[in-house]
Amino acid sequence: MSGDRNQLRPEDLIGAINAAYGNFDREIERLPDTSESLEAAEKHLRELQDLRIKYLGKKSELATQKKLIRSIDPTRRGEAGSNIQKFEQTITQRIVDKEQALKHFIENARVERESIDVTLPGRRPRPGHLHPITLMRQRIEDIFVSLGYAVEDDREIETDFYNFDALNIPEGHPARDPQDTFYTTDGFALRSQTSTVQIHAMQRRGAPVRMIAPGRVFRRDTPDPTHNPMFYQVEGLCVDRGITMAHLKGTLAEFVQRLFGLETKTRFRPSYFPFTEPSAEVDYSCFSCGGPGCRICKWSGWIELGGSGMVHPNVLRAANVDTEEFTGFAFGLGIDRTCARIYQLDDIRLLFENDVRFLEQFR
Q: What pLDDT digit, counting tens, does each position of 279-332 carry?
């Protein structure tokens, strides 16, 4: 408000307040005294509190005009203060009346909702159930535990040594590129495979060792029906005296037969992994068609299980295992991919969307 000091009139302040509060009547009447539901009434009560702040708060127009009372001629200052006080009391009372009506409705609605008719039969609670990935992980763990393997787990944020160096992944390898790995700070990254657990286990327990390491891993993959940046993997490791490729083939053949059926066959294809030498990709015959070809195996009769091979001597040395005395094999497979194939899911992302309608199918 402009003008010289002592030129303001009480009617000027009241006029400014009335202009600013022209919408108050419509806004307060828009909020009913009762509502169709408890939730709606609670929403109206919150809106009422917003109105209180808007029209009576420290930054409201009313508060601004009250500060200007001192600019009015002292002979009329009392008149201005009295008028503003009456206006404020009217606004406050209307809000309080609406607030009390809503609170009364809310209290009665809560009592009615929470009341219990002891003559009614009880309601059986709906039990929860395990996630399909957890179910698959437990099946895999049970098989390997019965074969004499221990189940190990460890940290998900690793140093470069455990994530790369100890696994014979040299500097400059594409796997170490920030486009493939989630780096947290310098020298640390989210683990890109659970092979890191094998190094910890060998350092802690020494050799011989026989273990699997199921858990979450992270890679910079673009989500699509067969990839996710966060997924579940299980790595297996067996280190002992006299371990050969034949032990690896026999172990994985036994595993897939227990998981998919006794008639399931395996095949090994030469491949390359920095942490194994020699290395091989493992396939198993399609559990759905048995070989002729179908949608699940993409009409090839075979489904990829994962990578495997004899542990590279550099990996054993990084874990302080004597390579002259011990050899070993390792393998890895995706838990969620295996889960998707068994349950015949077209999109692996369904396992991570937490849609209850989808998850209820796996009781």
A: 999 999 988 777 777 877 788 889 889 999 999 999 999 999 999 999 999 999
The rounded distance, in Å, linking the Cα atoms of 353 and 332 is 25
Give the C-alpha separation, 154 to 195, whole Å. 10
Alpha-carbon distance of 105 to 324, in angstroms, equals: 82
Distances from the Cα of 363 to the Cαs of 135, 342, 349, in angstroms? 10, 15, 19
Q: CATH fold of 132-362, please?
A: BirA Bifunctional Protein; domain 2 (3.30.930)
Q: Is the dihedral of CA 288, 290, 293, 298 positive or negative?
A: positive
231: amino acid identity, one letter: F
Which residues does residue 157 pair with via DSSP β-bridges, in sequence order?
190
Name the residue among 293, 241, 300 with its Cα closest to residue 269.
300
Which helix H or strand E contains 83, and what residues bound it? helix 74-114
85-139 pLDDT, tens digit per residue, is 888 888 888 888 888 888 888 888 888 888 777 788 878 887 888 999 999 999 9
Domain extents in the chain? 10-114, 132-362
Handedness of CA 224, 229, 234, 235 (dihedral sign): positive
Alpha carbons 299 and 100: distance in angstroms, whole number: 70
Listed residue (110, 124, 16) closest to 65, CA to CA: 16
Our CA dihedral for 201, 332, 353, 348, rounded to 10 degrees, sits at 180
Q: Which residues contact 96 (CB under 8 A, 6 or more apart)?
A: none
Retrieve residue 304's tokens: 């990829």
Q: Are 312 and 109 in contact (CB under 8 A)?
A: no
Three-state DSSP class for residue 306 = strand
SS3 313: helix
